[in-house]
C-alpha cells in the first residue's frame, strides 16, 4: 500500500542538521528533476527579491520566504515528517507513533512535493516555499515537470498493492494514476443537522487520523473495498462510491472533528 499525502504550505525550519543531499532521498529516479527544480528556484530567489516574491505568490512582507529558498543548498535539514506541519500532520503526529507504526509510515507514506516530487517521511529536507501551482522562470509550471517524472516511481512504489490518494486537487495534477492501478480516494464529509458538506479543517484532520489509525493497526488492504472495511473496523462511517477515472471514492462521514 502507498498512501500519498499533500504537503503543508507552512513548514518548520530545522535549526540544525546536515545540508540537503538529493542523492540520499528515496525515489532516486527523481534526482535529476529535483536538481532542475531546485536550481530554478534558487536562481529565482538569488535575483530581485520582489520579483521572486511575486513569482512565488507571496506578499512583499514575506521576503523571508525568498531568503529561505535562496539558501536551500546549505540550509539544515530534518526528517520530512518534522518539516511538514499543519492540521493533517498534527493529527498524524508521526513522532508519537509506536515503533512498528513508524516503520510502516516509512514504507507506506509519501508526500507530494513541488520541490522534490515525492518524499518519504524519513527523507531529510530543508524548509522551503514553493506552491504546487508555481511557474519558475526557465523551467515552466512545476506541475508540468512532475507530470513527466512521477509516474514510473510512484507506480513502482504501489506495486501490486493499493494506492490511497489523499492529495488535494492541486497536487493530484502532478500525476494521474493509470487504469492498471487499484486506487482509493478519500473524501471527508461533515454531517450536521442532516446536511453534508466538505469542510477543510474536518477533511485534513480526519485524513491525518485515518492514516495514523491505519499505521497503528497494521492493516494493509489491497482493494478500495477492503480499505473501507478496515476503516469501518476502526470506527469510521464509510460509504463506497462507484469506480471512476480517479479510482474508487470513499466518503468518510463525521459529525465532529
Automatic annotation (TrEMBL):
Q: Which InterPro entries match?
A: YaaA
Protein name per Swiss-Prot or TrEMBL: Peroxide stress protein YaaA
Instruction: Report the source organism.
Output: Nocardioides conyzicola
Taxonomy of origin reads: Bacteria, Bacillati, Actinomycetota, Actinomycetes, Propionibacteriales
Amino acid at each position: 500500500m502507498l498512501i500519498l499525502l499533500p504537503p503543508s504550505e507552512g513548514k518548520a525550519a530545522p535549526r540544525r542538521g546536515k545540508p540537503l543531499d538529493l542523492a540520499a532521498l528515496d525515489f532516486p529516479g527523481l534526482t535529476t528533476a529535483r536538481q532542475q527544480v531546485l536550481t530554478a528556484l534558487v536562481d529565482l530567489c538569488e535575483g530581485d527579491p520582489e520579483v521572486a516574491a511575486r513569482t512565488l505568490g507571496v506578499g512583499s512582507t514575506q521576503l523571508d520566504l525568498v531568503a529561505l529558498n535562496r539558501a536551500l543548498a546549505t540550509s539544515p535539514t530534518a526528517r520530512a515528517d518534522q518539516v511538514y506541519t499543519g492540521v493533517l500532520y498534527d493529527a498524524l503526529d508521526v513522532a508519537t507513533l509506536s515503533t512498528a507504526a513508524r516503520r510502516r509510515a516509512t514504507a507506506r507514506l509519501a508526500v507530494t512535493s513541488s520541490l522534490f516530487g515525492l518524499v518519504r517521511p524519513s527523507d531529510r529536507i530543508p524548509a522551503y516555499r514553493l506552491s504546487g501551482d508555481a511557474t519558475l522562470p526557465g523551467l515552466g509550471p512545476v506541475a508540468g515537470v512532475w507530470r513527466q517524472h512521477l509516474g514510473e516511481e510512484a507506480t513502482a512504489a504501489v506495486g501490486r498493492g493499493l494506492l490511497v490518494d489523499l492529495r488535494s486537487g492541486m497536487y493530484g495534477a502532478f500525476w494521474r494514476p493509470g487504469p492498471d492501478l487499484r486506487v482509493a480516494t478519500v473524501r471527508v464529509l461533515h454531517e450536521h443537522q442532516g446536511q453534508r458538506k466538505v469542510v477543510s479543517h474536518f477533511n485534513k484532520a480526519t485524513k491525518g487520523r485515518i492514516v495514523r489509525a491505519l499505521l497503528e493497526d497494521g492493516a494493509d488492504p489491497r482493494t478500495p473495498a477492503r480499505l473501507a472495511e478496515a476503516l469501518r473496523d476502526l470506527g469510521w462511517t464509510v460509504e463506497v462510491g462507484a469506480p471512476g477515472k480517479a479510482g474508487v471514492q470513499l466518503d468518510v462521514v463525521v459529525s465532529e472533528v
